[in-house]
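Protocol step 4 of 5: obtain the predicted structure for the target chain.
Materials: sequence only (see below). No template structures provided, no constraints applied. The aim of this step is simply to have a reference model before the mutagenesis design in step 5. Sequence pasted as it appears in the construct record:
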Amino acid sequence: MLKQFGWSPVWADLFEPFRAAGCRPARVVRQEYGAWLCASGEGEKWLRSARRGLQAVTGDWVACSPCWSRIEAVLPRRGVLERKAAGRRLEPQLLAANVDVALIVMGLDQDYNLARLERYLLLAESGGVRPVVVLNKRDACPAASSRLRETAASARGARVLLLSALQDDVPLVLSGVAAEAQTAALLGSSGAGKSTITNRLLGEPVQPTAPVRAAGGRSVHTTTTRWLTPLPCGWLLADLPGLREVMPWHAQPEAAPPGRFRAELDELARKRRDRAIRLASRAIKDKRW
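Step 4 output (structure tokens):
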């Protein structure tokens, strides 16, 4: 069962110190209210952490106690999806771990937004995750081909796919996005069609869906938890709830990484700093300080 959830010789090597201590390996497939559903060679079981402050996330590989009663440790993570926590809190929120591919789903309706897509691309790339853009609701957009070209020009080299989750053979369209035993995570806004895509990939209605609203052309938010499941095609899918706020954590100045987007982040920081100086100077001139 471990192999079907992505277990490999690499993870076996990382787990060796814990195995020597009598621990058992498992992968987190769901998280809810301080408890984690973990899949192991013996099935699935809800567990809690052994100590305060030990936090796991969907996709994590964990070391469980010999009696299979709690999570003792989290193995080092390889690819992460992490954003700034919603609201005014300046802290990271880890969405999923050990992700190989981010399937960024954007509906060709009022959900279509290239500026937001840029943030999703940054969120994936800064965490070491390969992005693939999925333009859904092809059937609802007369200008779908034009939107495809426009998106490809803005996607920084990421693969862009055109899809109708209701009409197309979804497993066939997405067949090449991930290799066997790899993990792909669905990212996107509420109503982009992620749950419908999940159900089509699984071949059964596992995730609840809702009809499109008459006003606004958006479907209702349905996914409320982060969960991971193997697919018939051989790779794994992490379905994440829709995000209202998308600010990559590594876009914060103190966490900005070197690499593909560093120049863009430095330029953005410079523009924000210059604007703040101009506003402060204007306020002083107008005697508002």
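Step 4 remarks: The first strand starts at residue 24 and ends at 32. The first helix runs from residue 9 to 20.
Proceed to step 5.
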